[in-house]
Automatic annotation (TrEMBL):
It comes from Hemibagrus wyckioides. NCBIfam families: adk. It catalyses: dCMP + ATP = dCDP + ADP; a ribonucleoside 5'-diphosphate + ATP = a ribonucleoside 5'-triphosphate + ADP; CDP + GTP = CTP + GDP; GTP + AMP = GDP + ADP. Broad-specificity mitochondrial nucleoside phosphate kinase involved in cellular nucleotide homeostasis by catalyzing nucleoside-phosphate interconversions. Similar to other adenylate kinases, preferentially catalyzes the phosphorylation of the nucleoside monophosphate AMP with ATP as phosphate donor to produce ADP. Phosphorylates only AMP when using GTP as phosphate donor. In vitro, can also catalyze the phosphorylation of CMP, dAMP and dCMP and use GTP as an alternate phosphate donor. Involved in maintaining the homeostasis of cellular nucleotides by catalyzing the interconversion of nucleoside phosphates. Efficiently phosphorylates AMP and dAMP using ATP as phosphate donor, but phosphorylates only AMP when using GTP as phosphate donor. Also displays broad nucleoside diphosphate kinase activity. Residues 164-201 are annotated as: LID. This is Adenylate kinase 4, mitochondrial. Gene3D superfamilies: P-loop containing nucleotide triphosphate hydrolases. GO terms for cellular component: mitochondrial matrix. Its EC number is 2.7.4.10, 2.7.4.6. Consists of three domains, a large central CORE domain and two small peripheral domains, NMPbind and LID, which undergo movements during catalysis. The LID domain closes over the site of phosphoryl transfer upon GTP/ATP binding. Assembling and dissambling the active center during each catalytic cycle provides an effective means to prevent GTP/ATP hydrolysis. Residues 74-103 are annotated as: NMPbind. The gene is AK4.
Amino acid sequence: MSWEALKNRAFRFLVHSFAEKKVSPTIYSRAAHQVQCLKEMSKLFRAVILGPPGSGKGTISERVANSFGLKHLSSGDFLRENIAAKTEAGVLAKTYIEKGALVPDHVMTRLMLPRLEEMTRHSWLLDGFPRTLAQAEALNSACELDVVISLNIPLETLKERLRHRWIHPASGRVYNMRFNPPRVQGVDDISGEPLIQHEDDRPEALVARLRHYKDVAKPVIDLYRAKGILHMFSDTETDRIWPYVSSLLSTKIPTDLGDAQRVRTH
């Protein structure tokens, strides 16, 4: 249930409670429960990180999770989990992936929104969703975001990063042969299984892929800019971007998120 829906429900209960001359204990109890839910939700924090392939979204997301106790929610992880579990949405998504096509909006929202509904008592950072305006509007109808982080990385930097990127397909673990290579060339550190390079990461496909991202992402960025929650960060190195992201979140995340949230996430 979204923040607005819960707030409106609590308000209706409270109005009804005080309007009645003889208020039943049940109504008071239900109203009190809604107020408590509102208090808990006011301490939560929901953010999205946007950026093209190779922009460092995963690295920044992991640092945010470790530093601030937020859950890192990855659309790629959700996709792999649903495909492995052979859920209806996962099977459907797999048919597109196997054809080399993008998973369409209606399938991605079917994958993502139910999972987010399970996270109503957690603060989180969402990575990889939304990618399109339709996905952003679907997310907007389900929850209220506090911050949107957008990583703006120069094209030449992205091309250089993606040329050296190798992936463990089963887990989604990413390696860069220049900056964070595996311990053994071409082999995943954890599983010992071979790494692959996506066809889309090859030089001949990169420019078209990055241009497509820019075209699709622009209305999403414009939407969040209009809502006043967009924060853009530009540089060629993740380590130089991170201090600014950390400084921003230090001013945005509720101070009483703290220990209780960290207990749930560790």
